[in-house]
Amino acid sequence: MEDWTQTLGTAPLLGIAVAAVALILFLVIRVRLHAFLVLVVVSLLTALATGIPADMIVDTLLDGFGGTLGSVALLIGLGAILGRLVESSGGAKVVADKMVSVFGEKRAAFALGVTSLLLGF
């Protein structure tokens, strides 16, 4: 289906875009879902709403994410989710406290920098 063309006019497409943005804001702010997951789900819903054939949706989304970003976006998103889990579970604080105890109170800034490197990689 590579010869597919958009049949919706400007007004319906703008309406779908506004609805997609509103849904993203609602799910992130009110429902408090993770932004990366919301963006992926709303992208899929938007593709369906605009009439893109089902067999073209994944390719369309990957093209939209861009060449390099498309191949790395999932890793970045899942890494952000994992980072949030480590932070909310208290794991980041435990590592930071241990680094401060190892390097001393006078080198707390350095200890936090080392903690950032450890948790960032």
Automatic annotation (TrEMBL):
Residue ranges that the Swiss-Prot or TrEMBL entry lists as coiled coil: none
InterPro entries listed in its UniProt record: Glcn_transporter
The protein's name: GntP family permease
Keywords tagged on the record: Membrane, Transmembrane, Transmembrane helix
Molecular function in Gene Ontology: gluconate transmembrane transporter activity
Organism: Candidatus Nesterenkonia stercoripullorum
Transmembrane segments: 12-29, 36-58, 64-83
Record keyword Membrane present: yes
Keyword Membrane tagged: yes
Any Gene Ontology CC annotation: plasma membrane
